[in-house]
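Quick one:
INPUT:
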């Protein structure tokens, strides 16, 4: 009797300690909009794995990326700091930019690494690498390791930017010292064909604007590169490659708590998904989203296989809103399927209208986060840091995650119904173009004096069609003052 009580006690203790340090999987899609998934109303794109995830967790309808473009969102997500407070993280970076996160700034990864987690990042980085212009021929640092990730397998910048190679733990995969890699964003390097000079060599898709420099895999890119020919990726195999690396990370780290930050290329341009996903009436873009759904399904299936699903917090979201023509003639610009990437929201990626930054946001944690639920909570990627800290029992240092609000009590029903955020700042493509959200109201302040500010009541006017700026002077005054206060503060986190 005593022995079995002891055994039960041990089992409970083990279970409690595992539950204290749940695994964390953050999956960040690229340019997938509010209307792109079946669980957010799409009928032209099939997303069965994401729909299943939504049914097993909570689906958020007022979640936002902190910016309407890639780099600043990714900076804020990992650091819990608004990117405009640190200029290198506030604008879209080239493929040779140095690391934008200061190595003395804490990240979700450094926090969890200190707590004994294995930490890995797989997929799109786009936060710069190295301490000056990136040299892809040597060990590249600082990089993910210096900001908390034990393991990294990266698309260094974006799919449409050079260099078109993967970087694993600081080294280009398949690097050949006899074929050194040169990358330049100012002038042409090497003698390889470009989209501008040799359009006849574009075998996959032609650029609609920009994107006319070095041709890799039949697609011209932003930026020139030469060398590294054996290392270059095949766009149509990218999802398979990075998904396999993410799944392997789960396998390799199944016996201890882990953080996996999996940032997909889908559905960013160039949209060149594997042919097996090309079944959507929304064309290549629809196929890229279906490919994303497959990637998510592979991760979830691996968690099931390893019997880790019950002790893993899974968050799936996108780094900014959807966009149709984003630089290539891939058919999306004249899509006739009727698919709306941002649903009925106004605007696209790059904009402070809701279509630019209101994004899909799914959270699953069996037994903790409500299943088959919908939440109207105003939330943002910048809040993941404090929320994950609470979910994993970590305490924030005074300088950590200065703009991150803890949603864990709300997500787990301890403080449901009480708004967590009294305000939220979002940034358009331009790092000085901010919007502030307070309750149902949103004030958008353009950076220059020539453009008119806009004020909308999102509850009464979700499509942002009636600018209330001139008829609500008192509200404008209050919101402008709050925007200014948040901009000038070094910290807005309440606790
Ligand atoms: Ca993006």
């Amino acid at each position: 009797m005593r022995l079995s009580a002891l055994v039960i006690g041990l089992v409970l203790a083990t279970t409690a300690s595992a539950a204290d340090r749940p695994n964390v999987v953050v999956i960040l899609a690229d340019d997938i909009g509010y209307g792109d998934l079946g669980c957010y109303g799409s009928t032209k794109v099939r997303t069965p794995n994401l729909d299943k995830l939504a049914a097993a967790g909570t689906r958020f309808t007022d979640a936002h990326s902190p910016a309407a473009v890639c780099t600043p969102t990714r900076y804020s997500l990992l650091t819990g700091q608004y990117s405009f407070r640190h200029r290198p993280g506030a604008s879209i970076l080239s493929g040779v930019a140095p690391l934008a996160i200061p190595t003395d700034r804490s990240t979700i990864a450094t926090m969890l690494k200190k707590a004994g987690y294995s930490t890995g990042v797989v997929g799109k980085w786009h936060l710069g690498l190295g301490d000056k212009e990136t040299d892809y021929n040597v060990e590249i640092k600082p990089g993910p390791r210096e900001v908390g990730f034990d393991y990294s397998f990266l698309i260094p910048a974006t799919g449409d930017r050079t260099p078109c190679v993967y970087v694993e733990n600081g080294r280009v995969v398949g690097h050949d010292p006899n074929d050194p890699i040169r990358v330049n964003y100012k002038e042409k390097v090497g003698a390889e064909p470009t989209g501008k000079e040799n359009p006849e060599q574009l075998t996959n898709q032609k650029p609609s604007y920009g994107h006319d420099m070095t041709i890799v895999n039949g697609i011209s890119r932003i930026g020139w590169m030469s060398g590294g020919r054996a290392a270059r990726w095949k766009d149509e195999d990218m999802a398979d490659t990075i998904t396999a690396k993410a799944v392997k990370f789960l396998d390799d780290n199944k016996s201890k708590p882990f953080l996996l930050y999996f940032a997909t290329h889908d559905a960013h341009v160039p949209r060149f998904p594997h042919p097996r996903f090309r079944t959507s009436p929304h064309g290549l873009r629809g196929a890229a989203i279906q490919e994303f759904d497959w990637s998510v399904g592979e991760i979830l299936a691996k968690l099931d296989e390893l019997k880790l699903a019950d002790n893993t917090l899974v968050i799936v979201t996108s780094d900014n809103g959807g966009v149709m023509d984003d630089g290539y003639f891939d058919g999306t610009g004249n899509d006739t399927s009727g698919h709306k990437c941002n649903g009925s929201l106004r605007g696209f990626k790059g904009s402070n209208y809701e279509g630019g930054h209101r994004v899909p946001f799914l959270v699953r944690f069996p037994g903790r986060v409500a299943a088959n639920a919908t939440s109207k909570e105003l939330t943002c990627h910048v809040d993941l840091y404090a929320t994950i800290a609470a979910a994993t029992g970590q305490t924030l240092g005074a300088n950590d995650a200065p703009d991150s609000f803890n949603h864990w009590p709300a997500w787990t029903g301890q403080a449901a119904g009480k708004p967590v955020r009294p305000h939220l700042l979002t940034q358009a493509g331009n790092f000085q173009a901010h919007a502030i959200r307070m309750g149902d109201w949103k004030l958008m302040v353009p950076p220059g004096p020539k453009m008119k500010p806009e004020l909308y009541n999102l509850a009464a006017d979700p499509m942002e069609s009636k600018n209330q700026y001139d008829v609500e002077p008192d509200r404008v005054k209050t919101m402008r003052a709050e925007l200014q206060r948040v901009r000038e503060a070094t910290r807005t986190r309440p606790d």
